[in-house]
């Protein structure tokens, strides 16, 4: 049997596991402290555990679920990590300093099955889901980065993959990341971005209070069908119903992400359609000018066009922020993560 990744376990699960090894359950809390508060790199650092138990851990549990294969730094300070997984696959995470925020963008799958037309990850197809430990370890590794590691204070599930398509592993990772004995991130500093897998949105809202971002990108079904094949399964009317019913704490809103594609979805009329679509939802909008990548048929709109689009939303009293692209020079911006051919 392959040893388990120790970072797959929530604290409760670790208690059961530790007991199954013949140890007292309080050892689990001690272990959690080593894994997350101390972020140890080897079992030998856990000197308060008996030598016999450490030997047993070495034999039955992997401490690392992934390995750093490379780090790129962009002129704007964004850092991209290339991680090698146990089976030889690769994934990427990106750390974006934007004081007072320093945000780590994590991956939830190797590739993605949903095939959005503008997204490089989508063009890879889905290789496999990540395990909980492979998600959590992206955070552990970034926290150890000597350059920015001690500044990481927020997390977004906006890297490779559709997090709700890997629901159980992602939810377990969120539990560990936000556990006060684990990585101790406040729920307010964790955001999950989805294309809108409607049945799972309801579940997410009932199981965790993390922030929700919804990739909308078009306000009419015809265009959204073309850009995002998932819209054929969950059209805008169903998506918006799920958004209106989503449980939100007072003053919280759903972030709607809207990529601006030149001449495709960026006209003032389409901005008005977006205003109409979002009526009745507690919404704010992030406008993301398209990040180009090799082989893509889309282009980034001129700045003036982006500002005009934003203006329409603002005049309708919607909060609309233009997300400037970060890490473009190292292909670390949204939708540019692919890790294709890594390690060759
Ligand atoms: N699968 C999820 C989360 C990962 S993608 C989702 O789609 O929401 C994170 C964000 O990057 C999404 O809003 C996605 O639409 C956007 N994105 C994808 N490709 C992009 C590109 N080339 N330029 C700008 N944003 C892009
Ligand atoms: Fe998958 Fe998100 Fe890319 Fe669409 S935008 S292909 S859902 S990662």
Describe this structure in words.
This protein has 344 residues and is α/β, with parallel strands linked by helices. Helices cover 33% and strands 21% of the residues. It has helices at residues 11-20, 26-37, 51-60, 120-124, 132-143, 167-178, 198-207, 221-227, 236-245, 268-278, 303-315, and strands at 4-5, 61-62, 66-73, 79-85, 90-98, 101-105, 109-111, 126-129, 154-157, 190-194, 211-215, 254-260, 283-289, 320-322. It has a 10-stranded mixed sheet, with helices on one face. The protein has a two-stranded parallel ribbon with strand order 1-2. A two-stranded antiparallel sheet has the order 7-8. Strand 10 (190-194), helix 7 and strand 11 (211-215) form a beta-alpha-beta unit. Helix 7 runs parallel beside helix 9. The longest helix is centred in the last third of the chain and has 13 residues, at 303-315. The chain is globular, with a radius of gyration of 21 Å. The mean pLDDT is 94. S-adenosyl-L-homocysteine binds next to strand 10 and strand 12.
Short description:
By secondary structure, the chain is of the alpha/beta class. Helix content is 33%, strand content 21%. The relative contact order is 0.12.
Q: Give the helix level as a range of percent.
A: 25-40%
User: How many beta-strand segments?
Assistant: 14
Largest sheet: 10 strands, mixed
Q: How would you describe the shape?
A: globular
Number of helices: 11
Bound molecules: S-adenosyl-L-homocysteine, iron/sulfur cluster
| Overall SS class | alpha/beta
How far apart the termini lie comes to 30 Å
Radius of gyration from CA coordinates: 21 Å
H/E topology pattern: EHHHEEEEEEHEHEHEHEHHEHEHE
Global mean pLDDT: 94
- Regions with pLDDT < 50 over 5+ consecutive residues? none
- Tell me the strand order in the biggest sheet: 3-4-5-6-9-10-11-12-13-14
User: Which percent range describes the beta-strand content?
Assistant: 15-25%
């Amino acid at each position: 049997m392959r040893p388990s990744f120790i970072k797959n376990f929530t604290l409760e699960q670790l208690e059961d596991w530790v007991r199954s090894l013949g140890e007292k359950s309080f050892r689990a809390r001690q272990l959690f402290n080593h894994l997350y508060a101390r972020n140890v790199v080897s079992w030998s650092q856990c000197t308060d555990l008996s030598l016999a138990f450490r030997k047993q851990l070495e034999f039955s549990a992997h401490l690392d679920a992934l390995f750093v294969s490379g780090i790129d730094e962009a002129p704007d300070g964004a850092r991209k990590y290339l991680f090698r997984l146990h089976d030889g696959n690769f994934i990427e995470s990106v750390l974006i300093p934007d004081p007072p925020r320093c945000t780590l963008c994590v991956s939830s799958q190797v590739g993605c099955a949903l095939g959005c037309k503008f997204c490089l990850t989508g063009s890879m197809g889905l290789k496999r889901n990540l395990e909980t430990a492979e998600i959590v370890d992206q955070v552990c590794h970034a926290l150890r980065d000597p350059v920015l590691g001690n500044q990481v204070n927020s997390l977004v599930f906006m890297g490779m993959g559709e997090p709700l398509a890997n629901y159980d592993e992602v939810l377990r990772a969120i539990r560990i990341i936000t556990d006060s004995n684990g990585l101790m991130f406040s729920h307010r500093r964790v955001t999950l971005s989805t294309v809108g897998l409607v049945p799972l949105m309801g579940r997410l809202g009932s199981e965790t209070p993390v922030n929700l971002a919804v990739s909308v990108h078009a306000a009419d079904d015809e265009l959204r069908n073309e850009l995002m094949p998932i819209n054929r399964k969950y059209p805008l009317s169903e998506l918006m119903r799920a958004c209106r019913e989503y449980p939100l704490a007072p003053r919280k809103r759903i972030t709607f992400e809207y990529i601006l594609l030149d001449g495709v979805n960026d006209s003032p009329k389409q901005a008005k359609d977006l205003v109409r679509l979002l009526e009745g939802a507690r919404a704010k909008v992030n406008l993301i000018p398209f990040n180009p990548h090799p082989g893509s048929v889309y282009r980034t709109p001129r700045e003036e066009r982006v500002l005009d689009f934003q203006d329409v939303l603002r005049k309708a009293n919607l909060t609309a922020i233009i997300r400037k692209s970060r890490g473009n020079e190292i292909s670390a911006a949204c939708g540019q993560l692919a890790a294709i051919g890594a390690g060759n």
